[in-house]
Amino acid sequence: MSKVIKLLLVEDDENDYIIMKSVVSQIKYESYSIDWVSTYDKAIEVITSKDNDFDVIFLDYNLGRYNGLELLQEIKEKGSTTPIILLTGQDDREVDIRAMENGATDYMEKSKLDVDVLERAIRYALARKKSEEKIFYLAYYDNLTQLPNRFLFIQKLNQAILSNQRSERNLAVFFIDVDNFKIYNDTLGHKFGDLLLKEVSKKLLKCIRMSDCVSRNSANGLTDVVARLGGDEFTILLTEISHSANSSIVAERIQREFEKEIVIDNQVLYITLSIGIAIYPYDGLTKDDLLKNADIAMYNAKREGKNTYRYYKNSSYEKQNYNLLMEFDLRNALKNNELDVFYQPIVDIDTEEIIYMEALVRWQHPKNGIIMPDEFIHLAENIGIIDKVGDCILEKICIDFQEMCQSGTPIVPISINISPKQFDNVELFKKIKNALENYKIPSSSIIIEITESCVFSPRIKDNINKIINNYKEYGIKISLDDFGTGYSSLKVLQILPIDFIKIDRSFTKDIIENKKNQAIIDAILVLAKKLDISVITEGIETREQMEYLKMKKCKNVQGYYYYKPLPFEGIKEVLKKAIR
C-alpha cells in the first residue's frame, strides 16, 4: 500500500479550503489527505511543531492582516524544510519572484487550479525536496560512516555558540583520535581500516544517548552531534552542559564502551581513543579556537600515554573550577557563620579624631584563612546569594553596635558597603530600617556606601532619587565610594543628594610623584567644597601623603597610616583609647 501524502492548507477562507479539498480528492495516482488551518499563529504552531509530518504545505498569500510572504519567511527562519507552495489570487510576477527568493518551492494561481496542475505541483515539490536532501547529504555527511562531516559539524557548532551566547550556557567540544590507527590501516589494509572506522562511529553514537542528562535535545532546540572530521579524527559536540566537569561523564562512558572488543572479519581488536575536551566559553569563543584547543588537549592525552581524556588547560578553566569550589564553600560559610566584620576608622586629618568607621566583611575560611571581599562578593552576586550575605553582615554590625553601647565603648557612626545587586532590591531599605529599630540603633549612626554602578542600575535608575531620599529622610547618610573611577561621576553629584564622596585609593597611591593625580584630587576637593559635600580620601599609607592632603585642606582620610581594618575586639580598644 502506497504512503498517504499529507497536505496542509493555510487559508483564511473556508470556501477555498472546500474547493482545494475537492480537487485533491480527484487525484487518481496517489493517496492524499489534506488538513486546514485558518490563521497565521495557528500555522506557525502546527508547522514548527515537532509532530509536523506534512509532505507539502499550500500557503495563501492573503491571510488577513498578514501575508503569505511574512509567514513563509518566519517558517523558514524557524528551520522548517517542508516544501511550500504559495497560492496567489492573481498573476503577480513580483510576488511570485519574492516567494521563490524567500524559499517557496513553487507558486500557483488559484484561478488556474485543477487536478492536473495540482498533482504536477505536488510531484514537483516532492521531487525537488528529495533532490535537495540528496545534495545536502552528499555535501554534509561522511560517505563512509554516515556521520556529519566537518562542514556540518562547523555549522552546528556555530549555531550552538550563537545560542549559548544568548542563554549563557556552556558547551563542550570533544576532539577524538583513534590510538595506533595507522598501524591497523597499514598492516591489515585500507578496507579493514574503513570497517574499523565504521565500528568506531557506531560506538561513539551509542555513547551519546538521548536520555542522558548531559546528552540530549537541549532547551535551545539544538542536539548533540557526533561527526567525522576526516581520517581517524572524530568530534563530539555537547550543546548544553551545566558545568564543564559534566562532560567527563560522556568521556568516561566512551572509554568504558571501547573496553569492549571489536570484531571485524573474525579479527578481535581492542581499540583505545585519545580525547581532548574544550569548554565554551572558557576555552574559546569561536569555532576555530574551540576546535584548536580541543585538538591541543587531545595531543596532551596522547603524550600522557593515550587511552585517556584531557581538558584544555588555561587560566580561565582553572578559575572556573576554583569558582565552583568557592561557590560551594560560600554557601556553607553562611550556614557555618564564617563571615565576619572588621572595622577601619576614618579620621579628621587635623585632630586625628575618629569621625566614623567603615564596616568591612571578611570570610574566615576554615582552610584558606581570611578571604578578602574582592574574592567572593562578585561570586555571591553571580550565584544570587548577595542578599543573604548582606543580611548576615547587617545583623553582625547591629550586634556589635549594641554590644559597644552596653559595654560603654565610645560610639561613632558606621558605614556599610552595599553592592549594586543588593541596592537593586526594593526591600533593602525596609530590612535596614527594621534591623536598626530591632536593635535600637539611631539612624544617624549608619552611613550607606554605594558605588556609581548602584546608581545607574537599569532596574532602579528611574527611581534612584526617591530611593536615596528614603534613606535621607530616615536619617541615614549616603557616601559615594570609589569616586573618580566611574564613567559619569559628575552627573551623580549633579542629580543625587550625596553626603560624602570617597576618593579612590588609585589616585592617592602615587600622589607625591604623579602630577596628574595631584591635579585630579585638587579638582575634586574644590568641586566638593562648592557642592557642600564632604570628602574622604582613601589609601593613606605614608606621612608624605598625609601632609600633602593636609596642605590641600582635605578634611577626612582613611588608610593604613592611621589604622588597619580591625576585628571587633580590636576596634573596641582603639575607640576606648582614641575617644575619651
Please give a structural write-up.
This protein has 580 residues and is of the alpha/beta class. It has three domains: 5-140, Rossmann fold (3-Layer(aba) Sandwich), CATH 3.40.50; 150-313, 2-Layer Sandwich (Alpha-Beta Plaits); 342-360 and 385-578, Alpha-Beta Barrel (TIM Barrel), CATH 3.20.20.450. It has an eight-stranded mixed β-barrel with strand order 15-16-18-19-20-21-22-23, surrounded by five helices. A five-stranded parallel β-sheet has the order 2-1-3-6-7, with helices on both faces. It has a five-stranded mixed β-sheet with strand order 9-10-8-13-14, with helices on both faces. Strand 4 and strand 5 form a beta hairpin. Helix 7 runs antiparallel to helix 8 (190-207) and helix 13 packs parallel to helix 15 (428-438). It is elongated. Mean pLDDT is 85; it is low at 210-221.
